[in-house]
Each structure stands twice: as C-alpha cells, then as structure tokens.
Design a protein that fits this description.
Structural class: alpha/beta
Shape: globular
Order of helices and strands: HHHEHHHEHEEEEHEHH
Number of strands: 7
Number of helices: 10
Strand content: 5-15%
Radius of gyration: 18 Å
Distance between the termini: 15 Å
Helix content: 25-40%
Length: 268
Amino acid sequence: MEESWLQRYKEAGLYTYAGLYAPLLQRLPDDIPTLVKLVKFQTIHRVSLWRSSRTRDGGEDSLAKKVPFDRLRCEDDLFPTATAMLAEIYRRNSQGFILDRPIEEKLIITCRSTSVLLASILKSKGIACRVRAGYAAYLAGPYEEVAWDHWIVECYNSQTNQWVGLDASPVVNEEKIETSNLPSGGFISAPKAWLDIRKEGRRPPSYYKNTCGITGWRPAMWTLFYDLHSLIGNSEMLYTQVPNYVFGFKFVPSEEQLAELDELATLM
C-alpha cells in the first residue's frame, strides 16, 4: 500500500480523535490482542442487553438486572465519538481500561462504537488502521445460514503487507474465533456483499441480514455508505447519517442508480 494512504490511516478522524486522552491511550499495552480484549471488556452490546431483558427467568444475576435502570438503553447516540466514550469510561471508573470492569460501569454500545474506540487507541499509538462495515458470517448460530451486519477494525501489518481483521465486539465468542486475527472470509466487507447480491449470486440476498431482521439489498446499500466513509473519509458515520436519497424504506433505486452503486462497490 502507498505510504501516503498508510499515513492517512494513522491519522485520527472526526470520530476516532482521542484528544487529551491520547497520552493515556499511549500508555496502554502495545500488544494488539490485549488491546482488543481491553476494549471488549469495557462494553456491553445493546443486543446482549436486549436479549437479557427479554429473558423472564434471568434471575438477579442476569445482565439486565445488573445495569442501572436509568441506563437500560443503547448509548451510541450519547457517546458518538472516541473522546466522548473515553470521557465516560474514565468518569465511571478512574482506572480506565480494566479487564474486571463491573457490568454497571460498562458502556452499552454497538460494534460500530467499539470499532471506533479500538481504532482510536491504535491511531494514538501510530498504528495504521481503519474501521470497516460489512457482514460477519461468524456471528451466525449453528443452524443459521446468514451473515449479520457488523463493524470491525482492520490493522495494517507492514511485515506481510496485509490488512488484519480485529473484532472488539463483546458479542463475539473468543473461543469460536480469533478476534485479533479474523480468518479470511469470516468478515465480508460491504462492497463484496453488495456485489454478491447484485451480480455474483453466490448466496441468496436473504443471507445478508441486519440487526433489525431486514435482509437483502437495502441494508447492504446502507452498509455500503458506512464503509465508504470509513475507507476514504476516515469518518465513521452514525447509523442515521446515511445519505438522504437512500435513507429509509421508501427509496427504490432506478437502474441508473443501481449501476452507480455497482460501480462504487467495484471501486471500493
């Protein structure tokens, strides 16, 4: 990869900028698997909390019972940037990144936010990385033929000249997959998913599914724009920041617009 692009991926963007917290992040371990685990243990995924809250026999030890009542919500919108997440992490516990953070002190965020947080740490250490949006086949259950929408971080390995996938989401079982070196094919980037749906047809469109249960080209189209901003803008847009012309469920692209999206995915 050209050095100019690697330098770009070392620089923080609107969401990954650590600000005054950068010196604290630089003191964290340099070992990437340890950093992935540290981010993972500061957070709760909103899906995990939702599932726990719907379990009638969860008991006093259930996840939802341990989270303060006034925080039983996704906090992505409260802490959209790395600086906001870092401020809250240290506010809730001045020790910062610890492996034994109590449940009631964890951030309730999605994989987009955990990826932004991990990327912020890596960039603070001068490591070239980028957030990616797409689909994770490894999140599927044993009897599911589906890849769920997901966000990860790619870290550049200068020795092998390859991008290595990192997944700091707390919903990922580390016993099932190596989260600091995702296997090839485990994560399907948004442009690959789009082209698979549109042209290649290796899998049915229903294979690609988002958290709301929507399948096919529409969530893939949204994810395509998430990934575009992460790749070239270094600005990992929020879920509500999809361009107006594709936002919502009423938009039906024309053949000309579909061709433009095909070209965009091919370039990506």
